[in-house]
Amino acid sequence: MKKPRVICIGEILFDRFIEQQGESLQQVKSWQDCPGGAPANTACALSKLGVYTTFIGCIAQDELGELLVNLLKDYGVDCTGVQRHHKAPARTVYLVRDEIGNSKLVGFGGRDPGEFADAYLSAELLPISLFKEADWLVLGTLELAYPKSKEAIYKAISLAKFYDIKIFVDINWNPMFWRKTETALQTIRELIKDVNFLKLTVDEAKFLFGTINPKAIAQSFNNLKGVLVTASESGCSYYIGGYEGNLPAFSVDVQDTTGAGDAFNAGIISQMIKYDIHCLSEPEIIRKIVTYASAVGAITTTKLGAITSQPTLIEVEAFLTYSNPT
What we know:
By secondary structure, the chain is α/β, with parallel strands linked by helices. Helices cover 35% and strands 20% of the residues. The protein contains ten helices and 14 strands.
């Protein structure tokens, strides 16, 4: 049996999009469902890029949950760490898109955000065997909003530190998952003390740290080896291994930005694995890694849906052959 290089832990769900781009919630005529959830998005993107990946999360024991499990398997993601909940439903998030493809979460279909299956991820059921062999642990912060899944996340972090696994966190901040913003801010900042690599958007950087400078963020924590700050069509800035830089975005026809950041994460990690952690001493390779990740994210925006729009390894290589950041 192959050993997973990367563990992605957290939520998998359905993104329910308004099909008519640019219309408000009150103008809805029809919806389109696409599988998503940041950690699951990254797991699938990594698998498409040729990195053997496992997903750990709690998924509903119902028809929709079965669809999600089968989706992960279809994309080659290992599911031995998946937990099932026989009562809680699969999470569905409702999204609107503006005229340029930017998505905004507008609710959970009238349900409380804490009643979905992913909120019941159990620390006791985490398969320790997966952590013994993995190189990377990837997670977001949404599961920290619920007591049971928060306990599981911290258990996973503890296992990662024990087995010397590199920890990559994408902030993925959204106030609709949390009951109190103050609690979220404190919880997320505490989490960052345990991680090695951090990715966040410009807005998240301002919210958490009052700065969008990745070097300033990294140097405020002793544990951070790298910080990436993304700014959509404005590109990204980074501070990795003591080297900082800025990279413009690729020019593409954007249809939907959902999951682009998760695909970007997969690009970063896949290239870190390719070049090994020692590449952090070479600024040219660091920039090459970030360029590759930016290409993966850019391609993902050209179609609707987070997982279905992700590129394969061959597609990324072809894109980089004929495209340059603007």
